[in-house]
């Protein structure tokens, strides 16, 4: 398989926050944002793998800023690292200032997707070759996150988590 660059999976979804999508404080429901992120991440994973993809996990979500009613929200997702059949998708959420048009990062998340065949069995995906400094940082950190997840799930011996151990030695 020919390796791909993260930019090839870049997916950008832009939409307004409508009244039916807000809580009593007139901010976007967290669940609505999660759904938007899942859709963008799904498209990014499909662009990378060119296969059917399924959400395997929501690894991290940081709701750092409330997103008010009427905001223009942009969800940017791209594959940060590919393993055998799984892909880590890093998602950045931006809110556009109504008057200046400046975008401010409001939230971020990390999802994991698995590519599957028509019967739902995992299939191999192309590897990732990061290009930018940020892509390289996210690529390197993805292995540490995967090892931590495997250790916590009891699927990896902590002594075998070499990337994690390197953080503490």
TrEMBL record:
GO molecular function: long-chain fatty acyl-CoA hydrolase activity
CDD domains: BFIT_BACH (cd03442)
GO cellular component: cytosol
This protein's UniProt keywords: Hydrolase
Sequence ranges assigned to domain HotDog ACOT-type in this UniProt record: 7-119
UniProt key word Endoplasmic reticulum: no
Protein's UniProt keywords contain Hydrolase: yes
Entry-linked Pfam families: 4HBT (PF03061)
InterPro entries tied to this protein: Cytosol_ACT, HOTDOG_ACOT, HotDog_dom_sf, Thioestr_dom
Domain of life assignment: Bacteria
One biological process term in Gene Ontology: fatty acid catabolic process
Transmembrane segments: none
Family statement drawn from the similarity comment of this UniProt entry: Belongs to the acyl coenzyme A hydrolase family.
PANTHER family in UniProt: ACYL COENZYME A THIOESTER HYDROLASE, CYTOSOLIC ACYL COENZYME A THIOESTER HYDROLASE
Protein name as annotated: Acyl-CoA hydrolase
Originating species: Flavobacterium urumqiense
High-level lineage: Bacteria, Pseudomonadati, Bacteroidota, Flavobacteriia, Flavobacteriales
């Amino acid at each position: 398989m020919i390796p791909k660059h993260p930019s090839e999976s870049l997916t950008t979804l832009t939409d307004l926050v409508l009244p039916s999508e807000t809580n009593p404080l007139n901010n976007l429901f967290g669940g609505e944002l999660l759904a938007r992120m899942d859709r963008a991440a799904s498209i990014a994973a499909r662009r990378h793998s060119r296969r059917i993809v399924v959400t395997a996990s929501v690894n991290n979500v940081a709701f750092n800023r409330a997103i008010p009613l009427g905001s223009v929200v942009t969800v940017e997702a791209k594959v940060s690292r590919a393993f055998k059949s799984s892909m880590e998708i890093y998602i950045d959420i931006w809110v556009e200032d109504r008057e200046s048009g400046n975008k401010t990062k409001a939230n971020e998340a990390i999802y994991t997707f698995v590519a599957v065949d028509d019967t739902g069995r995992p299939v191999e995906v192309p590897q990732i070759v990061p290009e930018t400094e940020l892509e390289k940082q996210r690529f390197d950190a993805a292995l540490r996150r995967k090892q931590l997840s495997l250790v916590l799930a009891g699927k990896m011996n902590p002594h075998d988590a070499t990337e994690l151990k390197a953080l503490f030695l």
